[in-house]
Amino acid sequence: MTLNFYENLSNDYVKLLExxxxxxxxxxxxxxxxxxxxxxxxxxxxxxYDEFKKSTINNNDNIKIIQKPQxxxxxxxxxxxxxxxxTINLEKVETSIIFDLLMTAxxxxxxxxxxxxxxxLQNFCDDIIAKHPNLIFESxxxxxxxxxxxxxxxxxxxxxxxxxxxxxxxxQWGTAQSKTLTSNFNDWIEKxxxxxRNTLQQCLPHIRYFQISNENIIEKLVPFQQIFDKKxxxxxxxxxxxxxxxxxxxxxxxxxxxxxxxxxRGYTFQITSLIITNEHAAEIASWIDKKEVTYDVNxxxxxxxxxxxxxxxxxxxxxxxxxxxxxxxxxxxxxxxxxxxxxxRGYTFQITSLIITNEHAAEIASWIDKKEVTYDVNxxxxxxxxxxxxxxxxxxxxxxxxxCNQKTNVVVVVxxxxxxxxxxxxxxxxxxxxxxxxxxxxxxxIFSLKxxxxxxxxxxxxxLASSAIYNYSDYYGPNFGGTDFRLYGxxxxxxxxxxxxxxxxxxxxxxxxxxxxxxxxxxx
Length: 524
Prior knowledge:
By secondary structure, the chain is α+β, with helices and mostly antiparallel strands. Helices cover about 35% and strands about 15% of the residues. It has 4 domains: about 5-115, Potassium Channel Kv1.1, Chain A (2-Layer Sandwich), CATH 3.30.710; about 130-240, Alpha Horseshoe (Serine Threonine Protein Phosphatase 5, Tetratricopeptide repeat); about 265-330, no CATH class; about 360-524, no CATH class. The protein has 19 helices and 15 strands. The strands form 4 sheets. The protein has a 6-stranded antiparallel β-sheet, sandwiched between helices. Strands 11-12-13-14 form a 4-stranded antiparallel β-sheet. A 3-stranded mixed β-sheet has the order 2-1-3. The relative contact order is 0.06.
């Protein structure tokens, strides 16, 4: 039997800090000495080991001393415990100290510490930049940003910047990396565009070209068309002119707009509570407003006014009812706002379907736009264009891929055999036969519609965006979440609930269908 005592070993190593060579940290009067050992430094921090080897300063006890006045005591205390104990705890460390720690770890060439333990710090910084991109993109030092840092920012789905502006900044950065490229690209020759293409080869795949307006394509992309792969450039032009036609390039999803401003510096939210924090209150507020992203603490739109505290007022139910007395008058429900205008008399919505009605289409449209009130039938803002009907075109997965490959904004509906069930799903990013595996979207959903004996609908939105849509043309047709709702071979089935909030039918497994239809929807 083998017994491991790693924790004891780590603690014993930390105790070695009580004797050894000396490093003086800080400057008088704020200075502290740390004792270290060459044997440990040789393996754990070669940078400091080499410093001691070069050192010629000795005290009366023949102990070597090196000085690091530019490093803070707090930072070095964390570093030395990492060297001896292999642990770092950043939970209660101030942000400014973390940044200094990052720089010192880099200076000391602590690769594991720098690359692994500070991954969370990089994500923290990326989060700030994603929400407030002007802090970095408009800074004087933007052009000196390392390529890896720029890529980590522009690949984020939540980068709060228009795609055309992201493109402008990427071009600006790429141009600045070469001394031979001038800001006037009209004077460039073919060699100059090749230099820019080579410089930006890691950045270009993360631009959402298919989310850029036609006007900006002409104004901003056309002058640099030489840096694009020919196939991608053809697809950009094709998609801009005929967005309903399939293309072979990958269409990245649009970025998620979260907030448009920095926290209000003139206002600091503070909740009066012994139980929850300001962060908890912000999270609760975001749930109230059905926001997918939590509010910033100082942009909480609600006040939380304390009216009862058990430890102060008492825990009995009579205390609750006395402090929170209900009113006796009848509270009528709010009026249901259905539409802000009279129906367009020159337009009557009519869907071409053997499965769903105009009312169903209006309900699906309201879910797409995340409306709490269903659209009026004749004010449905979308056209539902039928692209596949199983009874007309065939039920095999090959039929689906031939007719629906790379179609975005797709609604699938299914009529279950021998029941009144109508099941379906919405996929904003489409399925792509060139891809195998999951694709991410926050806006997809699956559903069961009201129909005859089915009195209530079921709406199941995405809970795991990274696996919302599944592509595998060799086995599946339309597939939501891998197992949540899919066409397998010639059969539809539901085998579990992984990526969406809830099941859309009572039983799981294969089920037969009378028909199924696929619609491409677009704003009218």
